[in-house]
From TrEMBL:
UniProt xrefs under InterPro entries: GPAT/DHAPAT (IPR022284), GPAT/DHAPAT_C (IPR045520)
Record-given protein name: Glycerol-3-phosphate acyltransferase
Name of the top EC class for this enzyme: transferase
The EC number(s) this enzyme carries: 2.3.1.15
Keyword Acyltransferase included in the entry's annotation: yes
């Protein structure tokens, strides 16, 4: 039998439905102890952080996700950063070394690929603040207008790759909310329309920025 010719509208329609479905799935993203810890540890070049550093980084992620929620359907754990770390350690995926500076939590090399899977489950929820952190870290000070221009240039690629929920005309409002939250956390300072790196919180900002470089 002669194979029927597919109508021209079929493929783009199916692609649009598939993309919309992926956006909806991502809107229901769920942060948890494991994917938050993996995100922080994989951001570190040595795949290790002191417990104090890991707690500080999880506090940063949790505050961003709670105060500027990714979507109405996304979920963030109610527990503290310290409680989440305790829970993650119980899963026996990480190593803990005792040191004079305190416990060092290590992501073993053999676990790195699996842990990347966990991190990728929430990458879309943190990519915009991570991108902002990367841009501010690179420039050390940048105007709000220039920051928007950098993000506008990269956003179509990020939206297509990570199935992000925002349209271009929504970005300015989200960026403003995230900038205010990052200022509240002391990651940056806002002066005369410019975002400045805060040296006192540079490690946390750099680890946040690493998420956009993956």
């Amino acid at each position: 039998p002669i194979e029927s010719i597919r109508p021209a509208w079929l493929t783009p329609t199916v692609n649009n439905i598939a993309a919309d479905l992926m956006v909806r799935i991502n809107n229901a993203g769920a942060a948890n102890a494991m994917n938050l810890c993996c995100t922080a540890l994989l951001a570190s070049r040595q795949r290790s952080l002191t417990r104090e550093q890991l707690t500080e980084q999880l506090d940063c992620y949790l505050s961003l996700l709670r105060n500027v929620p990714y979507a109405a359907d996304s979920t963030v754990p109610a527990q503290s950063a310290s409680e989440l770390i305790d829970h993650a350690l119980q899963m026996n995926k990480f190593e803990v070394e005792k040191d004079t500076i305190g416990d060092i939590i290590i992501l073993p090399r053999e676990q790195a690929v699996l842990m990347t899977y966990y991190r990728n489950n929430i990458a879309h929820m943190l990519v915009l603040p991570s991108l902002m952190a990367a841009i501010v870290t690179q420039h050390r000070r940048i105007s709000r207008v220039a920051l928007q221009q950098h993000i506008d240039a990269l956003y179509p690629m990020l939206k297509a790759e990570l199935f992000l929920r925002w349209e271009r005309d929504e970005l300015a409002g989200v960026i403003d909310e995230l900038a205010s939250e990052m200022q509240r956390q002391g990651l940056i300072t806002l002066q005369d329309g410019e975002l400045h790196i805060n040296p006192a919180r540079s490690r946390t900002l750099q680890l946040l920025a690493a998420g956009a470089r993956e």
